[in-house]
Amino acid sequence: MTPLLNQLGDVLVSTIWDVTPILVLIVFYQIVVLKRPIPNLKRVIVGSIYVVIGLAFFLLGLEKALFPVGQMMGTQLSSPEFLSIDADAAIDWRNYYWIYIFAAAIGFATTIAEPSLIAVAIKANQVSGGSITNWGLRITVALGVAFALALGTYRIVTGTPLHLYITAGYALVILQTIFAPKDLVALAYDSGGVTTSTVTVPIVAALGLGLADVLPGRNPAIDGFGLIAFASLFPIVAVLAYAQIKYFIAKSKKRKT
Amino acid sequence: MSRVIALLYLAIKKLRVALVDVLPIIIVIGFFQVAVIQQPIPEFGSIIVGSIFVVVGLMLFVEGLNMGLFPIGETMANSLTRKGSLFWLLTFAFALGFSTTVAEPALIAVAAEAGRIAAEGGLIPGDSASIDRYALGMRLTVAFSVGFAILIGVLRILMGWPIYYLIIGGYIGVIMVTFYAPEEIIGIAYDVGGVTTSTITVPLVTALGVGLARTIKGRKPLTEGFGLIAFASLTPMIFVMIYGLIYFS
Question: Shortest CB distance from B103 goes to which of A19, A53, A105?
Answer without folding.
Answer: A19
